Amino acid sequence: MRKIIGLCIAVLAISGCSLGDVTEKGATCPPKDAEHEAGLGIIGGVECSETECLVNDVDYTTNIQYGYCPVEFSQCGYDSAKDVYYCAKIACEEDEHIYEDECEPDTIRHCGSHEHDCKQLSGWKSGKCEDKQCVAEKCVEGYEVFKGKCKAQKINCEEGEHYYSEGSKCEKNTLENCGSHGNDCTNLSGWDDGVCSTDGGCIAIACTTGYELKNGKCEALTGCPENQHLYSGACEEDSLENCGSHGTDCSKLSGWQSGNCVDGKCVPSACETGYALNNGKCEALTECPDDQHLFAGNCEPNDLENCGSHGTDCSKLSGWKAGDCTQGNCIPSECDAGYELRDSKCEALVDCPTDQHLYAGSCEPDSIQNCGAHANDCTLVAGWGGGECVRGNCSASACLTGYELRGDKCEALTECPAGQHLYSGYCEQDSVSHCGAHGKDCSTSTEGWKGGNCVNMTCVPTSCKNGYCLDGNRCVNGEANDNACGVSGGVCQKCGGDQSCKSGSCSIVTVKCGQNEHVYNSICEADTLANCGSHGNQCSFANALDSGLKCESGMCMVTECKSGYHVYNNACEADSVSNCGSHGKECKFDNAADGGVTCESKQCKLNKCTANYYVLNNVCKPNDLNNCGSYGRACDILHAAVQKCTAGNCIATSCESGYHLYDKACEKNDNTNCGSHGKGCTTASFENSATVQCSTSGACELKSCARYAKRVGNVCNKVCATTDTYCPSDGGSMCCKKPTCTGQCLMLE
């Protein structure tokens, strides 16, 4: 077999494509003739042009050009199993076919193609593969050879029987196998009873409910008498609950009030409110006359309380003071304070002059307590010691203790001069009681200390307790230490080569021991934690781990401490914000609050920041509206129009229409708190009034007048109680007898 290097398939319904060498211009497949012009080929009965060749929705365009094989393809091949001609670099022989880019011989198992297996053909017993076709020579029982193929033999059965191919026998017709094996009459739709005829046909004589008998067959009911409908295979009477079909309830139709079921259709005679009878149907009202609107299915007149739609109250619009409802739109003629009329709308003022800011719809002057915004109090700024409000910004001129002035801002102290340390926001002088940090007492933090000084934030002893001696700038146990011998508290003595330290004194010894040994009972004893440098000198350090102790060159050493302590000066020093995890590692965070820093598990931890910052990932971040006082604490004051975060507290600086500022939040305007907290709106504000109300803008407004009083604008004028009296034309409060007024008349009640 020869390797097929590349294929370009073109489906051709034409035979006679010969194998041959390709000319310089390429070979045709099929050869070019008078019917195939230079730019056009007929391939598989489908026209193929320069740009497209589709055969049975498969694109064979790529490697066929103008009906020619491309120059790089030297042969024209043919696959008879698929009836496919193809352009190939190397073609197969006539008794071969292509399989996985190889030429495979034609055999009974692979005839014309790899998948074509002659032995899988029905009835095949033996034969050959000839011209890529399976040619049968013998067939299995029940089949016979016909034109090279195996054809099933026909068996004639007796009357009342049918041929059963799988059993290769005649089978008697029954209800379960009627006319053919498996044709079960009892499974037919609607079958209740019947017989299988001698010629193999199912003949019904009775049907189930919902079916009717027609010519020996059960057919589903498709129609019912007038005023009935099909339901569960039977006919059901039409009614208002089941009109035309089961479950079609006329009373549940939109707008239905009353009516009848006529010819299977719901026909209303009356409709509910909000619906109109139109062509036998209840249809919802969709339009109203001018100056009216739909509400609850009816048309309602437009007015200031219901303008364009029910409940649209013009008086509740932001900034509204007076106006009309025109063509369903609220058109103001006058606006509340803090609003201005723009394009037939009341819009809030948005700008103020320099050194002023918006507050409650008006411009408020900047001050120390209201700097740039209402309630932005400069005195609440961290470290503020004095200053002024400049162009809406707090400008400090003095700072509190623990803060320093940088530009016009007070910032917390972070460093101190030499000989001092930070404590509670200010610098504290180093001393033996507070050496390098507040509370670090040399007498308790330094082993063997009796007296000394605090030098460069470090405890430096000048004298030691009994049992210790002074070795440079530290007190050591000199009871049995050859390099530092002494227990009187004075300077340590170094014992000579023939001397050994015993009970704090150097004495001549006759026994010479190694580096990690000592003399005991005139022999050399190995140094251990229980006998370090001398017999019975047990190594023990407060707050040290047992695994962190060692005896080295006759001296007890500590290398690891318990949790909450660290090694310093051969002792365990407590972790603190001044010495966190190691001596001198001070916990410092910009903008941290006093007492807001701790040392936990040898790591500095930030717990609290100054007023205008919050803690996030061990860093103090500036407060903002999304993180006010703590991370994720967003400012969302109910009904606030503008708000800010000050000293970690959310504060409203202006409110939505219908609300006013109170206690850093927004309180609703009502007759008890109208425009501001505690400001009442009562009838005492309007003479002769009956009822008043607080407007959304926070103004107390007249709502209705008392008996015998008439409203004129925003004033209640008294009117006469009887028809024989009248009110003076000058608007006075007295009523007089007609036709003239003489003397002083009183109001008639």
Structure report:
This protein is an all-beta fold and 749 residues long. Among the domains are: 1-105, no CATH class; 118-152, no CATH class; 349-414, no CATH class; 442-562, no CATH class; 670-718, no CATH class; 724-749, no CATH class. 1% of the residues lie in helices and 39% in strands. The chain is built from one helix and 65 strands. Strands 1-7-6 form a three-stranded antiparallel sheet, with no helix packed on it. Strands 2-3 form a two-stranded antiparallel ribbon. The longest helix has 4 residues, at 442-445.
How are the strands of the largest sheet arranged?
1-7-6
Distance between the first and last residues' Cα? 129 Å
Number of helices in the DSSP assignment: 1
Radius of gyration: 55 Å
Extract low-pLDDT stretches.
1-68, 721-727, 729-733, 736-749
Strand content: 35-45%
User: What general form does the structure show?
Assistant: flat
| Average of the residue pLDDT scores | 79
Number of strands: 65
Helix amount: under 10%
Q: Which structural class do the helices and strands define?
A: mainly beta
Largest sheet: 3 strands, antiparallel
Summary of the model, kept short:
The chain has 749 residues and is an all-beta fold. Among the domains are: 1-105, no CATH class; 118-152, no CATH class; 349-414, no CATH class; 442-562, no CATH class; 670-718, no CATH class; 724-749, no CATH class.
